[in-house]
Specification:
Length: 398
Amino acid sequence: MKKCIVWETSASVAGGQKMTLTVLDLLKDEYEFLCLIPGEGKLSEELKRRGIAYICLGDQTLPAGVKGWQAYLRYAYMSIRSILKSTMVIRSFKPDVLYAPGPAALPWSAVCGSISRKPVVWHLHHLFSDGPTKKLLSYTSRWYSVRKIVSVTRVVGDQITSPAGHDKVVPLCNPVDTARYAAGDAEMILRETEAALGRPVLRKGGCMLMQIAVLRPAKQQDLFIRVVGALKHLGVPVTGILVGKAITEEDLRYEKQLRQMISHEGLAGDIYMAGHCSNVQDYLAAADIVFVPMAVEGLSLVAQEAMSAKRHVVAVDAGGVAELLRDAGCGTLYPLNASPEEIAGIIQQLLRQDHREALQRGYDFCLHHSSEAYRESISRVFASACGQHGGSDGGYRA
């Protein structure tokens, strides 16, 4: 059995970490894993549950408010510390391959791979908003140590602008457990929503609009609230459900603002803030439309889950979610700068149309991207990376 060191730069478990855990589960019969993580938390709990060893390297995030030259100095310090610690672990563990799905760890893994002469597999999940990060990744992607770059969508992979680096990109859509998300219990959620709002929810003829995401400014739950208000103004019998919870202090402040906004807009009887849930499939079963407004996501797992549940997805025409819906031939995209009223008008028109064929296409797309198919693809990527290793001096390829 081969050995693999995995970098994760977050101690929590969000979309990216869920995908990392999925990769570890799928390749557990081929590789012995050792994970390098910031510290104890949800991720370490999941690793313990799986019997996967891990080492805590310390915090790998920039504190809030750190900007400009201070941010560069802080990142340089974190990089040196992480590279030194990681190099010692590599010498002790003697891995066959290094796997870097954590954003900050991408360049660190390239350096460590060069020092230790180990092949590196990157996994890109994100759309990076700042130019310096893109330049750094494009530069280090050329290095010989970086053998393969898995990207969740083509638009994510296209951030690697170096020709030598882009040649290594392998677009590979995340798998989804279609059977799980197709088997939700809608009635339970409808009763729960009625109890929370203190009114009946229409089983037919109404619109259940839903957004599933961490409560965070970047997720734009405030836009969701405005769209619900606009639909109500149009006379659509709408019920909104926000699924997700706040994590950071900034998130908690945003949650407070959202609750105040719901009250101020007179939507207290129309929007249910459900908090965190482990039964996403049940919420999806109750939804008519799943709203995905985030333009900066590399791929929307929520959209995939909604497609598996045969639910219509309304999303912004930008980023990975737009590519996903176009490739699947389902869902509806609205312009990036559309107003809440314009989005509400689009949804109102959707409610009058028959989308059964499109929903089936989305479902079939998810069936095609099964865990077994993904396991075969990601296994080939790792095998190819290891097979290319030939004792190079670790320099970069022009």
